[in-house]
Amino acid sequence: MALAGLVLGSCVADRPSQDDWLIAWQGSQVPVDTARLFDPPLSNEQCQDTLAQLREWRTQVEPTPDRTIDRAVREWFQAAEESFFECPPDDGFEATFTELDRLRAEVDAALTSD
Hints:
Number of helices: 5
Oligomer: single chain
Radius of gyration: 16 Å
């Protein structure tokens, strides 16, 4: 039983505080929000720049402060990175932006429900 407590305690200690994490999460939204401002199609250079920014931000938001949002955050980055890697995706960015908004709302709702 004591070992289980130590393992759980070490897992919690490795997660950032919600306040610190929120700063990075909000920052990670900026590249996508900026990409929304461009009239399609984005240039390959714009897509590659956005992709590079997303990959950098991803290192700052993992791990999350609460494992209940791990899946949504992971899926958010996966969808964003895939779309900007394909540049533009075959069906355009509209479906991607809709999915990213849904996942962002899921993360935000989970964080405010505590």
